[in-house]
Structure formats: structure tokens, C-alpha cells
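Review box. Two proteins, two foldings.
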Amino acid sequence: MVEYYDGQDDGDDGLPYYVASCQEIVAVTDGRTWGELMRNIHEMIDASLEGEDTVALYNLVPNPRIVITMELPENYAEIA
């Protein structure tokens, strides 16, 4: 799941960012841009599955497709 944050909450630096989480492999990553987030997601998955028998554990084929679900605020088109 991917969530977008506008960076205006307490403790944020005022810059927007994305946070991605994956419950199946219990991992979280973030990125300032969509491109950075996608690179970080690939790195997160690679690191989490390194050395694992993904066929036996998750019934994955080599180079599986990644499906992303994203929640956006109603005014995303105006603020992104």
C-alpha cells in the first residue's frame, strides 16, 4: 500500500513524500518522488527476499509483477 503525505504534519520538514508498506514481507520504505519510491520499493523487496526460496515460500514465479494500491487525498491533483 502506498500513502501520500503533504509534509505539513508536526515533525515533517514541509516537503511531500510517499510511504509504501508491504504486509506480506513486513517492510516499509519511502521516497520524495514517485520515481524514488519505485526504486526504493524494488530495493526493499530485493533485500527482503534475498536468499529466500520465493517459489516455496510465496509461490512466486521469477520476476513477478508488483501490484501497488495507493490512497490519495481528494486534492492530490492540486497539491502533488
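Next protein.
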Amino acid sequence: MESVSDLFWEASVEEMKRGYRHRAADSEYVCLICGETFEEGLIYPSDGRLYEAGKYAGVHVEREHGSVFEFLLGLGKKLTGLTDLQRKLLHYFYYGYTDSEIVDAMDGGSTSTIRNHRFSLREKEKQAKVFLAIMAAIDGKSQKERKAELMSRERRAKLKQEYLNTPKKMGIFQIRNLVNGKIFLGSSPNLPGKENSVLFQLRMGSHYNKALQQEYQEFGADNFVFETVAEIKHREEATQEEYKQELEDLLELWMEELQPYGDRGYHKK
């Protein structure tokens, strides 16, 4: 099975921009951030509305992971090549700030300086396009070799069916610091997918909980574990909305029980 990082880096620019991709061979859409899949031909309910797989993939990305733009921008300098100043400017450009509004927001500089930054970033975009074209030319040589290494279509279909027929584990999870015992609590209707998503974000330095992210970088990945605290059993008659409410109620109970605040955790009251 592909890892989430493989899914992400093998996607096109357009697929990265929307946060999911279509795999025609498997008749499914897959989230590039957590790896969750959505099968074509199925209807997915959410908040009283029904969605086809492609539309629901977009709903999933927005609901579970927030703005794809902010996620990409938060990947850090090592992956984006952007300085802190450039990230701030791109944030303002994305949300439609004028040059004078950006100057006011940054408490300094001039509109001419902002225009120069716009020009520099456009030049960076052109360089990136040329580099992508160069790498695509290189990759084209080994495309036949990569195809030869793929598992047979029948085997893929069998694995896919086994995956679809297996109910996803849902419930409460914790990320525990093995050094100081502090924990971060959360809930998910897909614990394996959530584990992939959370650990991916921590590795990339983009997890929304800054205290957890800081200590993850300080102590290292080997000193953190993802653990299931409690599970909700699947019931054939239950709806997604009922599961959602159960997860919210169960998380509230475990927050009260474990009190993951201060020296005991990464949450704020």
C-alpha cells in the first residue's frame, strides 16, 4: 500500500492544489493528506447533503484538513523553499490584500517593496515550471520500468475489495510523549487514516497544535506514539451523523478523565 507521503509527492500540481486525486484504474478518489479513499459509484452523505465520490473528496479535505493553501504554505522552508517573509506575503496575496494593505499589516516597508516581492515570486514560479519540465523529461525514461513493477490488476482489485469490506476503526486516540508523558487527545471515524494524517503533519512541521509540534521537533519522532484510547463499535443501522455525535461525546468524556492540560498535555482550557 502506498504511504501518504508517496501519494502526496506523486500527485500533479493541480491535484496538490485541491488536496486529492482521481485514480481511474481503481475507480476511486484518494485524499493526498491522509490517504482515505472514496469509491466511484457510491453516494456519501454529509451534513444533510449527498455527494458523489469526487465532490465528497473535496468536502473531506476541507472538513478534515482545512485550507489546502494553508496546509501547503505550512510545510516549512525545507519543502517549500520559502522564507518566513515570502510565506507571509503569499498569505496576504492569497486573501486579496492590496499592496498598501500589506504594508499596513506588516507595519513597515513600502508599496514599491511589495511590488518587487511580487515580481521575485513570479520569477520563482517560472523557475519552478522549468525545473518540473526537466524532471518530467528525466522521469519519462523510466516510466515503462515503473509500470512493470506494479502489481497485477487482479491483485490490486482483490486488495481493494478486502480494504472496502473491512470496517474502519473509529474512536478516540492520543499522541503520547514518551519522555514527559504529555498527551494530545482527538477523535476520528477512521483511526488508521488519522494516524497517517497526524504523523505526516508532525513530520512536515505543520500540525495545528503548536505546543505538540514544538516538542515533537525537540524530542524527535521516536519519542512519540499514536495510541487508541477507546473505540466505537460499528452498527449497520447507524448514520455518519450519529457516529459524529458519539465521537464528540466520547472525546468530551476522555478530556474530563485524562485532563490533558498544563504539564499533563498539549491542550488549553
